[in-house]
């Protein structure tokens, strides 16, 4: 019954007037609700194309008009967790110790499944280091990534961008899960965040991802990192009860806690300053940073996990149940589609 109610809200969203969304325009690009499947990732590939990935190997190219082209990586399907482009290559990571590379010029796929002990690892995030020709992969036990109880077995690995050769273990801890990695504020600097069940720890590399050392302690479960406007922003949830209290902050400042919105899964930089917050409850908020509390913009019918910029004021948003939206903060009214 709960899924049927959410599906009804999604259909109704196509007919909501702009005024009902506080002046913001939300266009549902996929109205059918799939309760047993989700989109986890969306990434911009070029000026007019985004790739959307998710559960059970879901992957397709999305145009700026909303049309989709199914993409089929080789081998058995795995959950697609992160997508990044570097030059003419697109890299994708998943669970079961698997990652892919796609050549945009030749249209050829390459799949790499790492051997034991990495077969049960989800590569939840990764960074590309073209200066050294390597990828830095982070994550942990794939059951943790799916919300199940298991030893976290957090890990950071380096692997050549060719996907060939032996992986180099940079860091590992049986009791922590590494949720995110980003380039830092300085050249050759990378930051990652690991959760131990009670709080999170920011780890920093100053040598291009070859070694990491502990840095700031952060509250709660930090799920996402954003380097923006000279600050390290972070978001997540107060504790393991991710459906309750959301959290957002900047390193060195007190965090903001928000009841009843659940985990803040992602932060998206806004061209005019500040960031968008995507949440478990489906609420999209805007936060300028500092002491000012985040402001609610619009509520979606279900969890929103990730987004990617389309223009300075528009984003593609994806989430639970294969929900797919275009959110435009620059338009004040639009014809219903």
Strands, count: 28
Global morphology: globular
List the helices and strands in order: HEEEEEEEEEEEHEEEEEEEEEEEEEEEEE
The biggest sheet amounts to: 4 strands, antiparallel
Question: What's the structural domain tally?
Answer: 2
> So how many helices?
2
Q: In the CATH hierarchy, what is the superfamily of the largest domain?
A: YVTN repeat-like/Quinoprotein amine dehydrogenase
CATH second-level architecture of the largest domain: 7 Propeller
Mean pLDDT reading? 88
Strand content bin? over 45%
- What is the topology, as strand order, of the major beta sheet? 1-28-27-26
Describe the structure.
A hairpin with a 5-residue loop joins β8 (98-103) and β9 (109-113). The chain has two helices and 28 strands. Mean pLDDT is 88; it is low at 1-23 and 332-337. It has a four-stranded antiparallel sheet with strand order 1-28-27-26, covered by helices on one side. Strands 2-3-4-5 form a four-stranded antiparallel sheet, with no helix packed on it. It has two domains: 24-68 and 307-337, no CATH class; 69-306, 7 Propeller (Methylamine Dehydrogenase, Chain H). By secondary structure, the protein is mainly β. The chain starts with a helix and ends in a 9-residue tail after the last strand.
Helices and strands, with pairings:
Elements: H1 2-13, E1 25-30, E2 39-46, E3 49-54, E4 59-63, E5 68-70, E6 80-86, E7 89-94, E8 98-103, E9 109-113, E10 121-129, E11 134-141, H2 142-145, E12 154-160, E13 168-173, E14 177-183, E15 190-195, E16 200-205, E17 213-218, E18 221-228, E19 231-237, E20 246-250, E21 256-258, E22 264-269, E23 275-279, E24 283-287, E25 295-299, E26 304-309, E27 314-319, E28 323-328
